[in-house]
Amino acid sequence: MKIAILPGDGIGPEIIAQARLVLENLDESFTLEEAPVGGAGYEADGHPLPPATLQLAKEADAILFGSVGDFKYDQLPRELRPEQAILGLRKHLALFANLRPAICYPELTSASSLKPEIVAGLDILIVRELNGDVYFGSPKGIRTAMDGLFPGSREGFDTMRYSEPEVRRIGHVAFAAARKRNKRVCSVDKSNVLETSQLWREIMSEIGKEYPDVELTHMYVDNAAMQLVKAPKAFDVVVTGNLFGDILSDEAAMLTGSIGMLPSASLDAHNKGLYEPSHGSAPDIAGQGIANPLATILSAAMMLRYSLGKPEQATRIERAVQQVLTEGYRTRDIYTDGTKKVGTAQMGQAVLKALE
Ligand code: IPM
Ligand code: MG
Questions:
Q1: 179: CA distance to ligand 2 center in Å?
Q2: Whose CA is nearest to atom 12 of ligand 1?
Q3: Is 44 buried (19+), middle (13-18) or exposed (0-12) by CB count in 10 A?
Q4: Who lines ligand 1 at CB under 6 A?
Q5: Which residue puts its alpha carbon closest to atom 4 of ligand 1?
Q6: Of 13, 228, 277, 349, which is most buried by a Cβ count within 10 Å?
Q7: Using 50, 70 and 90 to split pLDDT, how confident is the model at 206?
């Protein structure tokens, strides 16, 4: 089986190196092939998603992605910015289902900015639609307004849209996931204002009837943002569109104490997937060897489970991560008094040791 490894920018190469070691250490034979992406793709080939990188991603059975983005590319035209690499991969590979688990490890409860009793034992899954919504809806652009409040002035516009099949397929992913968990789905929308959301809600209700064993609730996105900090443990699976999911998944990540701990999967209809940490490229700490590699290592575990059919290896990695936390190893982002502060490579070594 072939795994495309796309380290990207910022801390990407450092954290990917540790996840690579973990994969190489498993008693499985994978072919790991690396290619530049994001700012690194732009430097190497003049484009954030070079054709050869896209080709490799298409051929591979799964993709392990680091992170993209750096302040130094902020001035580039949008189509050349590093973010276009991840958006392009999502689109070209039809990765429409983004799974973002937010788990609060008992050892890290005090690292959350919320009171321990609110987050202890938290285990929720955000299912974010990733191929549609205002991210990809056309038309979009900047033009001279013909109407509206200020005709003749410049205006920016994007289009929020979801077709029925798009809502259906992400709905099924959410309900199927809930079946393997606590059997509750909360669909998040803004149907009091948006037509797109009204259709979304109707279709989710219809799909819900096909899963009588799963409880479906609906929530407006503003309320969901509030409930996530008020009583996050009341959620099990949250399903939502691309934009709301982008925002809510960052919020959910922070409940757990560190975004440095959270993996994610972006899947197509056949469970081929791209796996990446939920955090960004953190250019401010890049190259210092202090980034937390655990989200990337856990992303590799998700890859083994969802795309490579190796759930037992996935569980091994997850147990090893749990063990290093129990042993007290902490990178700077999750460090608290009385624990052992380590760098990126030492954390990777601790996981390798725990795997033995
Ligand atoms: C994410 C990121 C991306 C998004 C950016 C980098 C385009 O924030 O994966 O959540 O908005 O989807
Ligand atoms: Mg985001």
A1: 26
A2: 246
A3: middle
A4: 83, 86-87, 246
A5: 246
A6: 277
A7: very high
Catalytically active residues are: 135, 190, 222, 246, 250
Q: Whose C-alpha lies nearest to ligand 1, atom 6?
A: 83
CATH code for residues 1-96+268-356: 3.40.718.10
Structure confidence at residue 53 (pLDDT): 98
Q: Which two tokens stand for residue 200?
A: 């979304």
Mean pLDDT, residues 320-345 taken together: 95
CA of 344 to the centre of ligand 2 (A): 23
Question: Tokens 């104490």 appear where?
Answer: 257
Q: How many helices (H) and strands (E) does the chain have?
A: 12, 14
Which atom of ligand 1 lies nearest, measured to the CA of 90? 12
Q: Which of 38-42, 189-193, 219-223, 332-336 has the lowest mean pLDDT?
A: 332-336
Dihedral angle, C-alpha 69, 245, 98, 10, nearest 10 °: 20
pLDDT, mean of residues 9-23:
98
Separation CA 136–CA 84 (nearest Å): 12
Q: How confident is the model at residue 259 (pLDDT cuts 50, 70, 90)?
A: confident
Contact 257, 108 (CB under 8 A): yes
Instruction: Give the nearest ligand 1 atom to 130 CA.
Output: 12
Domain assignments of the chain as residue spans, ordered by start? 1-96+268-356, 104-129+161-258
Q: Among 3.30.160.150, 3.40.718.10, 3.30.70.100, 3.40.630.30, what is the CATH number of 104-129+161-258?
A: 3.40.718.10
Rg (C-alpha) for the chain, rounded Å, is 20
Site of tokens 């959350």: 112
Q: Do domains 1-96+268-356 and 104-129+161-258 have the same CATH topology?
A: yes
